[in-house]
Amino acid sequence: MLNRGNGRRFHRVDMPVRYFIVPSSPIRDREIYATGTNYFPESTLKLIEAKKALTLQAIGKIQASEKLLRNIFEEMIEYIEFFGDCLKDITNGKNPKSDLAYWIKVKDRQKGFKEAQFLEESSPKTFGYIKLIEEKYLTFLNAMIQSIDASTPSHFFVSGRLPSGFKIEEVLVTFQNPKLKKIPLIQALLNLTEFMETYLAVYRRINDDNYLKQFPKEWPYKLSNVSAGGLAVFMNKGFKLYSKVDAFLYFEAENKLLSFDGTIVGFRTVEGHQERIAINFEFPNGHDQKFLQLEIQKHEVEECMHIPL
306: part of which helix (H) or strand (E)? Predict the structure, then answer.
């Protein structure tokens, strides 16, 4: 639960809402537009480390005679971490294109996993799995390159939401069968894909933050602790303590978008690889505040109606 008591100025309640939170001011003196959001908070860094450790552990169980497989996995890890380094650059307002040698390396990754080609004839099934991993990797890499190519210091370009429902995700469901836990190659493929996903998820958040603001109906409902004076939410990203943010809440039934100037007053890592972020509304608009208070009361009435007598 998000609720930590109501002993405050405004009554607080846990309720699902559509919200969008972004720093009030982007990074200054940037080469490429960056909101200032921390997309690599402690919870995300710990998740990346944990998934990489599991990947390396699984690779270590592959027979020493399978040197080719080890080389392939090492290359894939290097490609994934290289993608992560690019993400860290753009979230800090650094444009990878500003370093020509580095940008050439970025473009070279578009050729896919080079070592994997040596498996095509000897192990076509394993090769097929790796190509599915590569497909998802290249989809996100190409989207990132397209965004960087078209972005400026005042605008981060995105063409829309990133795709989902990749074929490799169906394969992973099969790989999670307990009967396959003792097969090192299967576990290596499973853990490496999950390790890759930690970075791809970060880029999806960056992409969404530069796209979804215009489409509040697409904001997902998420459980939040809400009051007329602020809210607390769980997120996979972070903000500096006491920094200023713009907080938007959307209520579809009334087609009402509320906008608040907020201050981050609480920020801590919680279980489940997330951050709990508390925001106070600063000098909120009276009409918006009243509307929000009525929505909170409406939610409480609806909750009471579902309590069995």
Answer: none
